[in-house]
Design goal:
Transferase(Phosphotransferase), domain 1, 249 residues, three-stranded antiparallel sheet, alpha+beta
């Protein structure tokens, strides 16, 4: 308990780590996680409360306790289109709140989305979140291969569309059971080839007949290689989903 509330403690495993630069990097990452979420109050973004050290000299981050499974587990359950769209809309709204605070997640993947009480998605793990002016370059290539956007890998200027790309990879994997561009990590040289894009798009169409063409096109746009081909923002994408659902009722 901390301040009479249940918290989750994330411990930094520094004992026995001789590399001073690596130690500094881990501590900086933990502090960045606190800084990234300190001014955001949104149910879809996990709160980080404090960075501290214990009596033995170990370091930890205390954060909101989210009880529930990861999105990864939910992705293996029986598919329900309404539930799928609900969760996707909630994630895009959480991303919109994050981006409004001028923060990019930069490591969005199924394991970093927890389902509060197995129902509502919550973004977690902001250890490599990028804060500051939109369009600034990422300071490194940290993240998870396959989910990172091409511009993140190449160290190009980033904005919210980079996180949308990662969301698109999650969506593709959820629908087809596979990652679209997994020729070899990192596969950016292959991604640029139209033939690879066509092959992945064909797999999405052939392996998933549950989505109407208009919805499939919208979701496919998330993983456009060029950010200009993606929705302009998480807010716009959320609005597009809402418009689509309204048209279907």
């Amino acid at each position: 308990m901390e301040d009479h509330r249940d918290v989750a403690l994330k411990t930094l495993h520094l004992k026995g780590l001789y590399d001073a630069e690596r130690r500094r990097s881990l501590i900086a990452s933990a502090k960045r996680e606190l800084q990234a979420t300190s001014g955001i109050n949104h149910p879809g973004i996990a709160k980080v409360y404090a960075f501290g050290s214990d009596a033995s000299g170990g370091h930890y981050v205390s954060q909101e306790l989210i009880e529930g499974c990861t999105l990864r587990k939910l992705m293996t359950a029986e598919f329900d289109l309404t539930r799928f769209l609900d969760i996707l809309t909630q994630i895009s709204q959480a991303l919109s709140a994050l981006h409004d605070a001028n923060v990019l997640h930069r490591d969005l993947k199924p394991e970093n989305i927890l389902m509060r009480d197995d129902k509502d998605p919550v973004l977690v793990d902001f250890g490599i979140a990028h804060m500051g002016e939109v369009g600034a370059r990422a300071e490194d290539r940290s993240g998870t291969p396959y989910y990172n956007s091409p511009e993140q890998y190449f160290g190009k200027p980033l904005d919210g569309r980079s996180d949308l790309y990662s969301l698109g990879i999650i969506v593709f994997e959820w629908l087809t059971g596979e990652i679209p561009f997994k020729a070899m990590p990192p596969a950016w040289n292959f991604i640029q080839k139209a033939s690879l894009y066509r092959a992945a798009k064909k797999r999405m169409i052939n392996r998933d007949t549950r989505l109407p063409p208009a919805l499939r096109a919208l979701l496919w746009s998330l993983i456009a290689y060029d950010p200009a081909g993606r929705p302009a923002s998480a807010r716009e994408f959320s609005g597009d989903l809402k418009s689509y659902r309204t048209e279907q009722t």
